[in-house]
Fold this sequence. Notes:
Blueprint: H1 10-29, H2 33-55, H3 61-88, H4 95-178, H5 189-234, H6 239-263, H7 266-278, H8 290-322, H9 337-343, H10 349-380, H11 391-419, H12 421-424, H13 431-435
Helix pairs in contact: 1-10, 2-3, 2-4, 2-10, 3-4, 3-10, 4-5, 4-6, 4-8, 4-9, 4-10, 5-6, 5-7, 5-8, 7-8
Amino acid sequence: MARSDPHLTAAETKGLRAARELEGHVKWLESFTPAALGVLAVASGIYTYLGVSSLLEDTGAMSFFAAVAYSVAVSVGIFVFWSYMMRLLPAMRTASGLVGLVLSTIIGSFAIIAMSSWLNAAALAGSAAVEQHLENTVRDYQGGLERAHEIALSGQALGREVERARQTFEALADQERSGDLSGAAGEGAVFRVLTQKTEELSNLEQQIAAQSPLITAAFEEGNRILGRMRELTVAPGPVDQRSVLFAEESVRLAGVIASLNQYSVATLVTRAAQDLPASVVLPELDGRNSDVRAAQSSTIASVLSALDQRSQTLKRAADEVLALEPPAETVYNPISSADAVIRYAGNFVPSWAGAIAIDLLPAILVFVLAITQAAIRSGRDGISVEETLTLSDLKAALNAMRDVETTMAAADADLDRRSDPGRSAPLAPSSDKAAE
């Protein structure tokens, strides 16, 4: 409500001057704000087009028009939405209306992010995100290869346990040959039992040793494939084409890792350890007398007990290898640039920030304009219209009054002419005077 006192206080005068200054700035800014908003909307639409194009598998005319239509819709939507907010939100005076428009702005911002910003991020950092996916896949494959190689080498270490067992039975056989074991020198029943187990362990040891060059070759081949995959990760050229070659190499590497898993001899050692005491073929006792045969029987029983103990030792060692956590199964899944940007969003924060900023920067302008309009209204509150008139406003008002008065005078004269035609028409000269 305007006050009745025609004089302004110093504070009111200062506030009025500030309001007029802000109004001048706002009028100047509004002269190019729509153009700037249009440029932002078009830029967002262009990056949206690039993001949509990366999602469409078909490269035909229909896909092109679909991408163009979507990007144009995004540009128009962004321009119209922020134009509404810039006009309506700063002019809102009621608290309920202001809260409603702020909520609408927030919801609209989320909608813009959902339909545009993530595609903008895909256009800005899509190739880099796919390369990040390739790099992470290489790291996973490397971990799987090294783990499979480690398990295979642990299996090879069982060869030393087998070797120790073989050497033990070989030493016992030598003792039996010299008569230091059963007391009967020669190659009798006890010697044949020991020789039988020594040969079994020797065959197992040879099988384990035969796996060693295969493991080494597989590991070297896996490292070569990993090297090619790393080169494809950072190589120049379109990332889509590199992804195809990367997938082929990943299939080869998966086969190498599977081979390394099969080269582990832990399962073989476990079965051999179980068969070691169970597969003894007891020969006929060939002692010269009952005392020798009794000594042979007792020695064979001791040998069987030693076989059982050695079998348990080998089985425990093999079980420890089998208990090792196998390598995680790694499978390369091709990924689009848009999906890669979302999956590795934490690695591309600047790109996400730029993609969102280009869409939501007008929100800052909306709130700046709202604050400015609130300051203008605050500077004019409580001041009558007459007190806010400037000299230019007074001159414009006087000119308008003169135009109104001129128009009204012309209208009155026209009305008089229509009501009394005789007064407006000039008198014609008489016929007599004309004759004179």
